[in-house]
Write a structure and sequence with these properties.
The protein is an alpha/beta fold and 296 residues long. Helices cover 46% and strands 23% of the residues. The protein contains twelve helices and eleven strands. The strands form three sheets. Strands 3, 4, 5, 6, 9, 10 and 11 form a seven-stranded mixed beta sheet that branches. Strands 1-2 form a two-stranded antiparallel ribbon. Helix 1 packs across helix 3, helix 1 (3-15) crosses helix 4 (59-83) and helix 2 (18-25) packs across helix 3 (29-43). The chain starts with a helix and ends with a helix. The model has no long low-confidence stretch (mean pLDDT 89).
Length: 296
């Protein structure tokens, strides 16, 4: 059985179509179709039901998919055992939010790279749903999410940490003197906010339940840039503590005691349950699991 044909079959399943699989693998659609017909003939089963330009796995196709993944994983393990027995090497692809990228892929990655110089990383910044899509399609080996606590049967949580989120203002802002504040007291203040981060989404839902909303003067995708902007103005923002920590410690920002708005999100390192953990992938998981434990 041709392993390339099995790879094509798995790609068709993961990308939900012959054209998409062909684009991913560098094949024409006709080549993909030919390989699938070859596999169906060899196995003497129909792998897909075809309805109006849509394909759906048959019962036999689902069985073949499970075993095809096992075969390809076994082949990858064999190649690692043969050629990389004494060193940790390989290419890894991570997906994460920009907040996670700025937090964990600066000094931390330098430390990791010194320990494992043969591991090469590609990082894609994405929202949670896009990350999960990449994980299901095997486009990403790991994802770093910052969102509500996530549990899905298809994914395994390798590490996680709860993160607190607060309103912050420039040090010296008049609101800093208040011992307690309510949302009603700050809702009309000028705001600078992130564009579509999970904690912004949670806050918007909380406000909507009260028939209220924040209309920011500016929206930015980079939370660190947002901290710098707020520290030089009378605007407020709403960010996880780990993002604002350095600015608070340096006396540039202050956290506001808004007592009727308690929000937390979770940093989670997730992998697909069917993903084989190569030595390089396991090394990265172990490194960042320890990093999250040190943050706890």
């Amino acid at each position: 059985m041709d392993l390339n044909v099995l790879r094509t079959f798995v790609a068709v399943c993961e990308y939900s179509g012959f054209s998409a699989a062909g684009e991913r693998l560098g094949y024409t659609q006709s080549t993909v179709s030919s390989q699938i017909r070859q596999l169906e003939k060899e196995l003497n089963v129909a792998l897909f039901d075809r309805f109006y330009h849509r394909i759906v796995l048959t019962q036999e196709g689902s069985l073949v998919l499970r075993y095809a993944r096992d075969v390809l994983t076994a082949q990858e393990k064999l190649m690692v055992a043969l050629h990389h027995a004494d060193e940790v090497t390989g290419d890894l692809h991570l997906a994460m939010s920009s907040s996670m990228c700025s937090r964990y892929f600066d000094d931390d990655f330098i430390d990791f790279q010194r320990s494992y110089p043969g591991v090469r990383l590609t990082i894609t910044e994405a929202g949670t749903e896009n990350m999960f899509s990449m994980l299901r399609k095997n486009e990403a080996d790991l994802v770093f999410t910052l969102d509500t606590h996530i549990y899905e049967p298809d994914f395994e949580i390798c590490a996680e940490k709860e993160e607190q989120v607060h309103f912050v203002a420039a040090a010296g802002n008049a609101l800093e003197k208040s011992k307690t504040l309510s949302l009603a007291e700050i809702i009309d203040q000028p705001f600078a906010m992130t564009e579509s981060m999970s904690y912004r989404r949670i806050l918007d839902k909380l406000l909507a339940a009260r028939s209220e909303a924040i209309t920011p003067l500016i929206e930015l995708g980079n939370p660190t840039q947002l901290c710098s902007l707020v520290s030089k103005s009378d605007m407020l923002t709403f960010l996880p503590d780990f993002i604002t920590q350095a600015f608070v410690e340096n006396g540039m920002l202050c956290r506001l005691p808004v007592t009727d708005c308690t929000v937390s999100v979770w940093t989670q390192l997730l992998i697909h349950k069917n993903k084989w953990r190569s030595p390089a992938l396991q090394a990265l998981i172990d490194f960042y699991r320890k990093r999250l434990e040190e943050d706890a």
